[in-house]
Specification:
This protein is mostly helical. Helix content is 65%, strand content 2%. It has 19 helices and two strands. α1 packs antiparallel against α2, α1 runs antiparallel to α6 and α5 packs parallel to α8. The longest helix has 22 residues. The chain is globular and about 55 Å long. The two termini are 20 Å apart. About 3% of the residues have low confidence.
Length: 373
C-alpha cells in the first residue's frame, strides 16, 4: 500500500523548495509592504526543509537511537561538537523536534551555502536532492552526512589552495563524525592535479567492471564485515547499523532502481567532457573526480556495510554532478539530442523518486509527524 501521507509531505516539500529556488535564481521579489520586498527565497527553502524534517517521527534509521540518547542524556560516545550541542539542548529540555530540526537545517544550509556563487544550479540541485533520494540518506546517517556537507563546502578551499581553511573544515567535520579525518588525504590528491578521469570509454569500462565485481562479491564482503565487526564502534558506527536496514537496501541488486541509477551514471560520463568545457573551472573538475571515484568505490563495496562507510563522503557528488548535467542540457536545449537527454534524465530521476515509496516500513522512510507517535 502506497503511504499517501509520505507522498504528500515529500512531494509538497520538494515542490515548495524547488519553486523557492527558481524564484531565487531568477532574482524575483515579493512585495510584503509598500516599502519592503522579499528576495531571500533560498532562506525560505532552508526553513521549509528544516521544519518538515524537524517535525518528523521515526524517519531514518538514526532517528530512534538519537531520540533515545536525547531522552536519556547518554551522549558519551558522540563526537565533540555533536555531543556538546546535544548536551546543551537536553540540559535545557529543548523539544526533540527542535533538536532534529537543527541537524536538518545544518545539512541543507551548508549544501546551499556551498553553491552561493552558483545560484543558477539551485533548482537542479533541489531536484536531484529529492528525486535522487539523497534527502532521505541525510535522515539515515545524520552525523556523517553533516560532515559530508561540510566536506562539499570545503572543496573551494582546495581549489583556492587554502589549506588552513580546508583543515578547519575537516576539524569541524570531525566534530560530527571522526571518520572525516580521512578526508585530509583528499587535499594533496586534488591540490596538485585535477581531471583524473577524462577518458570516457575507460570510465565506462571501469564502471562496468566494478558492477560485475560488486554483484559477485557478496560472500567475500560479508566475511570482511564479520571480521571487522568488533571495530565498528571504534570507527564511529553505531551498534544498530551493522547488518541494518540501510545495509540491505544498498546491496547490489539488479532492479529498476539499480538500472536507472546506472543509466544516469552512463549519461553523466558521456557528457563529462562537454560539461568540463562548459563550466570550465577547477571546482567542477574536483567535483567530477570525487563523483567518479565515489560511484566506482560504492559499487565495488556495495555489499560491505563497513567498508562502504568511509566512501559515503563521495556519494553526494553524484547529486551535484547530475544537477550540473541537468543545467547543461537545459542551457543547450537547441540541440535535439540534448532535449531528449534532458527528458530521459528527468524521467530516470522521477523513477527513482517514485520507487522510494515502495520501501517497506522497516526502511524507516514512511513519514510521520511527531504527534503521530
Amino acid at each position: 500500500m502506497i503511504p499517501m501521507q509520505s507522498v504528500l509531505v515529500y512531494t509538497m516539500t520538494f515542490l515548495m523548495m524547488f519553486s523557492a529556488s527558481v524564484l531565487y535564481k531568477n532574482g524575483r521579489s515579493a512585495v510584503l509592504m509598500p516599502d519592503m520586498k522579499y528576495r531571500r527565497w533560498d532562506i525560505l527553502a532552508c526553513l521549509i526543509f528544516t521544519i518538515v524534517f524537524g517535525l518528523r517521527y521515526n524517519v531514518g534509521i538514526d532517528y530512534a537511537n538519537y531520540k533515545e540518547m536525547y531522552d536519556t542524556h547518554e551522549f558519551e560516545r558522540l563526537e565533540y561538537i555533536f555531543r556538546g550541542v546535544s548536551e546543551l539542548f537536553a540540559a535545557n529540555e529543548v523539544h526533540v523536534t527542535i533538536y532534529f530540526a537543527l541537524w536538518a537545517f545544518l545539512q541543507i544550509y551548508i549544501l546551499m551555502k556551498a553553491f552561493r556563487s552558483e545560484k543558477f544550479i539551485y533548482p537542479a540541485l533541489i531536484f536531484t536532492l529529492f528525486a535522487g533520494q539523497y534527502f532521505l540518506l541525510w535522515m539515515n546517517v545524520i552525523r556523517q552526512d553533516i560532515a559530508a556537507c561540510i566536506f562539499i563546502y570545503s572543496i573551494a578551499f582546495i581549489v583556492d589552495k587554502k589549506f588552513l581553511k580546508y583543515l578547519l573544515c575537516i576539524v569541524i567535520a570531525c566534530g560530527f563524525h571522526k571518520t572525516a579525518v580521512l578526508l585530509l588525504a583528499v587535499y594533496p590528491i586534488l591540490r596538485y592535479r585535477k581531471n583524473y578521469f577524462n577518458n570516457i570509454p575507460v570510465q565506462i569500462g571501469v564502471l562496468l567492471v566494478s558492477v560485475v565485481i560488486g554483484l559477485k562479491s557478496a560472500e567475500l564482503m560479508e566475511a570482511i564485515d564479520r571480521l571487522m565487526e568488533p571495530f565498528l564502534l571504534v570507527l564511529g558506527y553505531e551498534e544498530y547499523a551493522f547488518g541494518g536496514v540501510e545495509s540491505s537496501i544498498s546491496e547490489v541488486k539488479i532492479g529498476v532502481s539499480f538500472l536507472a541509477t546506472l543509466m544516469i551514471d552512463f549519461m553523466i560520463i558521456a557528457y563529462s567532457r562537454r560539461m568540463k568545457a562548459f563550466y570550465a573551472n577547477d571546482r567542477f573538475l574536483c567535483f567530477y573526480d570525487l563523483y567518479y571515484a565515489g560511484i566506482v568505490l560504492n559499487m565495488l563495496l556495495a555489499n560491505s556495510f563497513i567498508l562502504q562507510r568511509p566512501v559515503r563522503y563521495f556519494r553526494f557528488f553524484k547529486m551535484i554532478i547530475a544537477a550540473y548535467l541537468l543545467y547543461y542540457l537545459y542551457k543547450n536545449g537547441k540541440s535535439k539530442i540534448n532535449v531528449i537527454a534532458f527528458i530521459v534524465l528527468i524521467a530516470l530521476f522521477l523513477l527513482l523518486y517514485i520507487s522510494l515509496f515502495r520501501y517497506g516500513p522497516d526502511a524507516c522512510y514512511i513519514y510521520y509527524f511527531f504527534w503521530q507517535q
